[in-house]
Amino acid sequence: MPGVEGYMYPNEVSLYWSVLIVLYPYITGLVAGAFILASLERIFHVEAVKPTYRLALLTALAFLLVAPLPLQLHLGHPERSYEMYLTPHRTSAMAMFGFVYLWYLMAVLVVEIWLDFRADIVALSQTTTGWRRLMYRILTLGSTDVSERALHIDERVGWFVTLIGIPSAFLLHGYVGFIFGSIKANPWWSSPLMPVVFIFSAMVSGIAAVMLVYMAMMRLRREPIDMRCVDKIAQYMMYIFVIDFSLEMLDLVHRIYEADESFRSLNFMVHTKLWFSQVILQICIGTIVPISLIALVQIVKFSEKWRKAIYVVSGSLTLIGVLAMRWNVVIGGQLFSKSFLGYTTYKIALVTREGLLVSIGLMILPLVILAVLVKILPPWPEKSAVSLPAPSVGD
Amino acid sequence: MKITRRHLLLLLPAAAVAWESVLAGTPEQSPNYTMTEHWWGMLIDISKCIGCGNCVRACQEENDVPDGFFRTWVERYHVDDWHITEPQVISPDGGKNGFPVAKEDEGKYFFVPKLCNHCADSPCTQVCPVGATFISPDGVVLIDQTYCMGCAYCVQACPYGCRYIHPTKRVADKCTLCYHRITKGLTTACCEACPTGARQLADLKNPADPIHEFLKTHSIHVLKPEMATNPKVFYNDLDGSVR
User: Which of residues 176 through 215 in chain B touch A, CB cutoff 8 A?
Assistant: First the structure.
């Protein structure tokens, strides 16, 4: 059979989870990571990262809005997906997706963004005209009180929402890891470390994404990059990346040392079909290089120009490395037979519903949404300080 | 043609025989079938399987299984003395058209028919997000294909590779143990087509079923017992190398 080495159970020859299922954990990971970066400032008072706080929230929202799309496109009957809400199967990890997603979107992210931008929305609803005025008026949800007391309440509630948001972000992405980690039939996936590894790699990718988006936006706006901020972000990224890499290596070493019945099969797979995507792309280029580069910045004093270049390179490599990690989990987990006697091949199609073009589109879409969000809710300090009219009567 | 009394007398017995033949092919109605009185499984006797592929063909015909996918298939194992735990396995087109002639060399050859194990603790049922996959009260793992959304999580969760996504229906599909037949008192298509009796439908709740005597007197194994799925396809004479 073409593309098959050794013996696959006959129904295993074609892969059932395509590149879209690679994108799904990747995108939710970016959401979780971006949110956790935002919470650094809010909860842990890391003042240095403040310039990216609002941008991180909007980035999280942009990616979260796109997160269910790859799933929907992958389903055989997307029109039935609402059944997951109506008749969720309680024993299914996947059934919880809808609820965790809705909780995170509606109860955490949207609420936090609204609270944080409310004063700006009120101001914009008073300074703009035409349809924009109407849009901002709707976005105020009738809450136009921007008195000091009201803003203080916003701040307190926002803080509380962020506090809930951190475990929610962990839940959102940890649960994605659990979807894979709980499949006992698949030794490549079945690991209690899987949700933890997913969470840490999510943080790394989300932080890298926000850092790059911030640097790109500053360049587009021809404004100076706050180097104290990106230095700090890169530092955090490196720390979390080290934890993530250690966990992944722990998993690897454990597998190698234990060498259970699946080991020979998985070992062969890593040395052949996954050699480039796992060893070269994920481990070497996507992990060791960015960690080393940022570590170098901590040791050697580089000029601002060099630091910027290093951050752009290491951020981009990190994103590639984490995407490769998702690929290796999702696609790698289907390349070998559950009989441990053979291997199949995955060929990505170009223009099909689950093809390469759709995948590229799905990765561009959040950036388009982010551009729109940034236009509607400018996260920049000078815009947020739009001169508010004097508090209205009764405030 | 004018039908005379003589013609009618000749035609009536012929028509009766034809009608009898039609009825024979119709599954008998079983309005009294009570699900809770049965607990279905299957017995597969490896030593009896000759790898003819009759079962695979019968299944494909009975259940309209699409080409390239299998509700049941037959594997041929080749185990030599030096690779006791590393068998060489083939299943060309699911064994549908039999197997190439084996080389007369070292080691042993044997056939292993596979199908959904209708596990009592089935991981596919556990993971289905909408509950489209379920275990019927008579112990058969079934799919409500009008409800399945085709996410393929169950395909990933099955340790035995028994599930697939139907290429045109775009929903999960697998062996139903010919539920439409067994609830009408018939056996499965694969069991019926097996020329050696290597496959036997078994009702564990029926005290008169020969399965009980067989299980008592033979060395029985299930596939991948370490998965703790509680399978109900029982294998007699199963080699330890079988995955």
Answer: none
- Each residue's pLDDT tens digit, A199-249: 999 999 999 999 999 999 999 999 999 999 999 999 999 999 999 999 999
Whether chain B has a CB inside 8 Å of the CB on A99: the answer is: no
Smallest Cα distance from B221 to chain A, Å: 17
Nearest CA distance, A195 vs chain B (angstrom) = 17
What residue numbers bound the domain in which B69 lies? Answer: 35-236
Question: Is B14 contained in some domain?
Answer: no
pLDDT in tens, A36-86: 999 988 899 899 999 999 999 999 999 999 999 999 999 999 999 999 999
Q: What is the mean pLDDT of chain B?
A: 93
Give chain B's domain count.
Answer: 1
The pLDDT value given to residue B18: 78
pLDDT for residue A382: 57
Task: Point out the residue among B75, B87, B127 whose CB comes nearest to the CB of A92.
Answer: B127
> Which pLDDT score, from 0 to 100, does residue B198 have?
98
User: Would you call B155 an interface residue with chain A, using a CB distance cutoff of 8 Å?
Assistant: yes
Taking 70 as the pLDDT cut, the residues of chain A under it are 382-395
**B28 domain residue, yes or no:** no
Q: Which B residues, 34 through 63, put their C-beta within 8 Å of a C-beta on chain A?
A: none
Name the minimum distance, in Å, from the CA of B162 to any CA of chain A. 7
**Mean pLDDT of chain A, nearest integer:** 93
CATH code, domain with B164: 3.30.70.20
* Structural domains of chain A in order of their starting residue, each with its CATH number: 5-381 (1.20.1630.10)
Determine, for residues B127 and A93 on separate chains, whether the beta-carbon distance falls below 8 Å: yes
Q: What is the pLDDT of residue B4?
A: 86
Q: Which residues of A touch B128 (CB under 8 A)?
A: 89, 92
Q: Does any CB of chain B come closer than 8 Å to the CB of residue A301? A: no
Question: HEC states along chain A?
Answer: CCCCEECCCHHHCCCCCCHHHHHHHHHHHHHHHHHHHHHHHHCCCCHHHHHHHHHHHHHHHHHHHHCHHHHHHHCCCHHHCCHHHHCCCCCCCCCHHHHHHHHHHHHHHHHHHHHHHHHHHHHHHHHCCHHHHHHHHHHCCCCCCCCHHHHHHHHHHHHHHHHHHHHHHHHHHHHHHHHHHCCCCCCCCCCCHHHHHHHHHHHHHHHHHHHHHHHHHHHHCCCCCCHHHHHHHHHHHHHHHHHHHHHHHHHHHHHHHHCCCCHHHHHHHHHCCCHHHHHHHHHHHHHHHHHHHHHHHHHCCCCHHHHHHHHHHHHHHHHHHHHHHHHHHHCHHHHECCCCCEECCCCCCCCCCCCHHHHHHHHHHHHHHHHHHHHHCCCCHHHHCCCCCCCCCCC
Measure in Å the smallest separation between the Cα of A10 and chain B Cα atoms: 6
* A80 with B147: Cβ contact below 8 A: yes
pLDDT given at position B17: 75
